[in-house]
Amino acid sequence: MKNLPAADSHLNEAEAEEVFGILLDGQTSEEEIARFLTDLSDRGETGAEIAGAARALRARLIPISGPDNAIDVCGTGGDGHHTLNVSTAVSLVVAAAGIPVAKHGNRAASSKSGAADTLEALGLDMEAAGKTAEKTLSEIGICFLFAKNHHPAMGRIQPIRQKLGRRTIFNLMGPLSNPAGVKSQLIGIARPGYVPIYAAAKAALGTKHTMIVSGDEGLDELSLAGGNEVAVVKGDSFEMQRKSASELGLPSSPVAAIRGDDAIYNAAALTALLDGNPGPYRDAVIFNAAASLIVAGTTEDWNEGADIARQSLDSGAAKDLLARWIAMAK
């Protein structure tokens, strides 16, 4: 068994890839992994370390084929706000608007209900959804890439993450390791101050068009509560922006207004959203869907993106897509 390095010394990208290869290949103990992840999180990961770790995870994943224009919409989790599943709802809205979404996700690690938990409560057979992922992505424009099916190297890591009950670098690695190899993404992270660091990692890995976003209160998505840090990453460079919901004519709402609970609760809220319920959850989904449609290249205008999202909801297209997805994943 190998010892992992002390977290007080920064790793360059190649060193990080090597260290995480050791970690993912089971060449060190669970105690070492827990110690290393905790120390690294306490110290703060660098862009080079995140990129190197993601390369190690990418090298060990089981890929699928997907449309060249497919995108992913996800958050890193670990923000402690326990909100409703915004990115899951956004994925349905955007896919119903004609953009293929290869949704990469997992069960809850530090929240009450992850994307997989909520989709399962809605009636999606997660095992069948995994087996039919390429088919549903190709035919109806959406799939769920359950992390455990595509990252076998994570098998011994997930229990350690759950035991730690806190965000670690694996929250940051997951969105950078989509099995469909998406070229464009909307990624929410839980630390506003980390947006440029994470954007540097994404730039090192390369992308067509990605937005890294974080609400000022530490929300891992675009927040209605106030301002948002946004990094627009294209190719191997990025620029920082500020964005608020008011610029789209959306009302400000506190994070508590979209507080979620367990999978049953979150699934009921998502069903109500698709049925046309107004309120902060809808507004948050529209805000984040607008950003998703921009990275997808559907529009360059936030307000137009918001209008497309509203149409996807109000026409019943997003609701119908979920029903078709559940029916296909049998």
From TrEMBL:
Its cofactor is Mg(2+). 5-phospho-alpha-D-ribose 1-diphosphate binds at residues 75, 78-79, 83, 85-88, 103-111, 115. It catalyses: N-(5-phospho-beta-D-ribosyl)anthranilate + diphosphate = 5-phospho-alpha-D-ribose 1-diphosphate + anthranilate. Mg(2+) 2 binds at residues 220-221. Anthranilate 1 binds at residues 75, 106. Residues 69-318 form the Glycosyl transferase family domain. Mg(2+) 1 binds at residues 87, 221. InterPro entries: Anthranilate_Pribosyl_Tfrase, Glycosyl_Trfase_fam3, Glycosyl_Trfase_fam3_N_dom, Glycosyl_Trfase_fam3_N_dom_sf, Nuc_phospho_transferase. Pathway: Amino-acid biosynthesis; L-tryptophan biosynthesis; L-tryptophan from chorismate: step 2/5. GO terms for cellular component: cytosol. One of its GO terms (molecular function) is anthranilate phosphoribosyltransferase activity. Its EC number is 2.4.2.18. It holds the Pfam family Glycos_transf_3. Catalyzes the transfer of the phosphoribosyl group of 5-phosphorylribose-1-pyrophosphate (PRPP) to anthranilate to yield N-(5'-phosphoribosyl)-anthranilate (PRA). Belongs to the anthranilate phosphoribosyltransferase family. In the C-terminal section; belongs to the anthranilate phosphoribosyltransferase family. This is Anthranilate phosphoribosyltransferase. The gene is trpD.
